[in-house]
């Protein structure tokens, strides 16, 4: 037998050996955005460079610890164990690991049953290496633009807004009227081509008030997004 028979393709070897820290992998229905309501596998990576005031996943970065360390191949294996054909790659910040995050996206996109992978990213990581380096049309980006109420607006990577495509989403999580007004200005200045979502911070901004503001300001192409998992289950419950 020649050595060549023992050599696996490079991508396969990388997928087998590249390890990522994770919080959890579970199946539920997507709670927000354009995929809301679809059964979805959530792959939650560990770690985030931001510390948003209203963060509801504080267990995804220190002082908490990663719950799992899995290779890309092992993550794909776990995803294959579920019936869902949609994946939400989330965190924390799922793009924190650069080429390792890109490799994971490429391998998940190669799973034949998967029809959609949406990446929930913080807005602080430049999208260019991912939009340019992950070719699959299955992969979409959902940028959570951090408004002043988060305490992290200065960290937003503004050039990435121009890279968002029609299949992507730009979500503004709104805690107050001041946040709403900044979101409007961001849209006026950057004119993104993707779906625009306005989502009230759970417990801070009233959805009814947000709807009134949207209609009064004639924001005809902004979509209200509510976190339906917080309606279905206890808002603090994890793994749903
Ligand atoms: S970017 Fe997301 S995970 Fe990170 S602190 Fe903000 S809300 Fe939490």
Overview of this structure, please?
It is built from seven helices and nine strands; from the N terminus they run αβββαβαβαββαβαβα. With 240 residues, it is α/β, with parallel strands linked by helices. The chain has one domain: Aldolase class I (TIM Barrel), CATH 3.20.20.70. It has a nine-stranded mixed beta sheet. Helix 2 runs parallel beside helix 3. The longest helix has 14 residues, at 177-190. Mean pLDDT is 93; it is low at 1-5. Residues 48, 50-52, 55, 57, 60, 91-93, 122 line the site of iron/sulfur cluster.
Structural class: alpha/beta
DSSP helix fraction: 25-40%
CATH topology: TIM Barrel
Count of individual helical segments = 7
Under the CATH scheme, the architecture is Alpha-Beta Barrel
Give the secondary structure arrangement, pairings included.
Layout lengths: L9 H8 L1 E11 L9 E7 L22 E4 H9 L5 E5 L8 H11 L6 E6 L6 H6 L5 E7 L23 E6 L2 H14 L4 E6 L6 H10 L5 E3 L3 H5 L8
Parallel strand pairs: 2-4, 4-5, 5-6, 6-7, 7-8, 8-9
Antiparallel strand pairs: 1-2, 1-3
Helix pairs in contact: 2-3
Bound molecules: iron/sulfur cluster (SF4).
Iron/sulfur cluster binds next to loops.
List keywords for this structure.
single chain; 240 residues; alpha/beta; TIM Barrel; 9-stranded mixed β-sheet; disordered N terminus; binds iron/sulfur cluster
């Amino acid at each position: 037998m020649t050595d060549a028979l023992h050599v696996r393709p490079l991508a396969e070897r990388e997928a087998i050996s590249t390890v990522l820290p994770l919080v959890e992998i579970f199946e539920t229905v997507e709670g927000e955005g354009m995929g809301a309501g679809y059964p979805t596998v959530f792959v939650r990576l560990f770690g985030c460079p931001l510390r948003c005031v209203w963060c509801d996943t504080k267990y995804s970065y220190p002082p908490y610890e990663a719950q799992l360390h899995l290779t890309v191949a092992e993550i794909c294996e776990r995803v294959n164990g579920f019936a869902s054909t949609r994946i939400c790659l989330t965190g924390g910040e799922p793009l924190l690991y650069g080429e390792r995050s890109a490799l994971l996206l490429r391998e998940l996109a190669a799973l034949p049953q998967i029809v959609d992978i949406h990446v929930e990213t913080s807005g602080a990581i430049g999208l260019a290496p991912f939009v340019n380096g992950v070719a699959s049309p299955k992969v979409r980006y959902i940028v959570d633009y951090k408004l002043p109420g988060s305490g992290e607006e200065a960290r937003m990577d503004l050039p990435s807004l121009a890279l968002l495509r029609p299949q992507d989403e730009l979500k503004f999580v709104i805690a107050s009227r001041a946040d709403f007004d900044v979101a409007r200005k961001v849209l006026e200045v950057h004119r993104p081509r993707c779906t625009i979502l306005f989502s009230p911070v759970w417990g801070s901004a009233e959805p009814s008030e947000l709807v009134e503001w949207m209609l009064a300001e004639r924001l005809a192409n902004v979509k209200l997004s509510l976190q339906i998992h917080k309606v279905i289950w206890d808002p603090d419950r994890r793994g749903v």
